[in-house]
Write a structure and sequence with these properties.
Shape: globular
Order of helices and strands: HHEHHEEEHEHEHEHHEHEHEH
Strand content: 5-15%
Largest sheet: 8 strands, mixed
Strand order of the largest sheet: 1-2-5-6-7-8-9-10
């Protein structure tokens, strides 16, 4: 897994508490330590983003894998998840470090074009587009997503595009607009199990609303790959994780990523448990047994995850060849 320790003895000897006691703040376990971002490609992408006034969730959400993804890593392709519609969210989820406001700045009308231009210059073969929640917009920003995908595909029809979207307040018309834009993968994160939704996410989000838009993406286009993500370590039980995975499969979700929740600042939810790499491997097997096309499960796995994108790229390539 990305950034994880491969030597089991290194982490199995860890003596710290894995589950939080009342009033305690858990020590950071060794398997979650990552290297400082370095390298020419990392700096090149960072500078390009600044020049075009683009944002990435990699930076805004403090993703632990930014060094590997932007630097190239094991898959020899630099990847970045572009965050559309600014860096200010209208919601205030208790796990997320992205800044919030009731009325964020207006959309940049040039952003869809600038994003397509930047991606063409990078020469990537897989890109993830995501965004903050924009409840201040009538369609939640669906048209902005669709325009961006359209511009990207005009420049490079072979570039695989994944859209990791907000829930659009459950507006299925907005979902259709994004799904029919020409994307290849439609993703939306459930974030956590049903019982913890109201403690972890903004009150405007909920389990059934998120599940409905994922399910609808497959109803609109049967060939689209649907994808979601869960954070572990928020206080969920193993039974709840299994039941959630089972429900996702029953609703036709194709791909799943599971990663460790890490508290971004002291103001956010505390980590209730550090899940071991061994347990994450177990959940990967469970996901495969349940029939997900792909299950990425590991402490440092995030919803935008290079190994998963590498798998999806090859899956889509194989599908196109079979269709000929």
């Amino acid at each position: 897994m990305s950034g994880e320790l491969s030597d089991k003895s290194t982490w199995s000897e860890y003596k710290g508490n894995l589950k939080r006691q009342k009033g305690e703040r858990l020590r950071f376990p060794p398997w979650l330590k990552t290297s400082i971002p370095v390298g020419k490609n990392y700096n090149r992408l960072k500078n390009t983003l600044r020049d075009l006034k683009l944002h990435t969730v990699c930076e805004e959400a403090r993703c632990p894998n930014v060094g590997e993804c932007w630097g190239g890593g094991n898959y020899a392709t630099a990847t970045a998840t572009i965050m559309l519609m600014g860096d200010t969210c209208t919601r205030g989820c208790r796990f997320c470090s992205v800044k919030t406001a009731k009325a964020p700045p207006p959309l940049d009308p040039n952003e869809p074009y600038n994003t397509a231009k930047a991606l063409a210059d990078w020469g990537l073969d897989y890109v993830v587009l995501t965004s903050v929640d924009r409840d201040d917009l009538a369609d939640g920003g669906a048209e902005h997503f669709a325009k961006t995908v359209s511009y990207i595909k005009e420049r490079n029809p072979n570039l695989i595009v994944e859209c990791l979207t907000p829930d659009f307040r459950g507006d299925l018309t907005a979902v259709e607009k994004v799904v029919l834009s020409g994307l290849d993968v439609f993703a939306h994160n459930m974030e956590t199990v049903r019982s913890l939704q109201r403690f972890v996410r903004d009150p405007r989000a909920n389990f059934d609303q998120s599940l409905s838009i994922l399910r609808h993406s497959k109803e609109v286009r049967r060939d689209v790959i649907s994808k979601t993500s869960l954070m572990l370590g928020l206080g969920e039980t193993e039974e709840e994780v299994y039941e959630t995975m089972q429900e996702l499969r029953e609703n036709g979700i194709d791909c799943l990523t599971l990663g460790q929740y890490m508290q971004p600042t002291k103001r956010h939810l505390k980590v209730e448990e550090y899940v071991t790499p061994e347990k994450f491997k177990y959940w990967e097997k469970v996901g495969n047994d349940l029939g997900f096309l792909y299950t990425a499960s590991g402490p440092l796995v995030r919803s935008s995850y290079k190994a998963g994108e590498f798998f999806m790229k090859n899956l889509l390539k194989k599908r196109k060849q079979e269709a000929l």
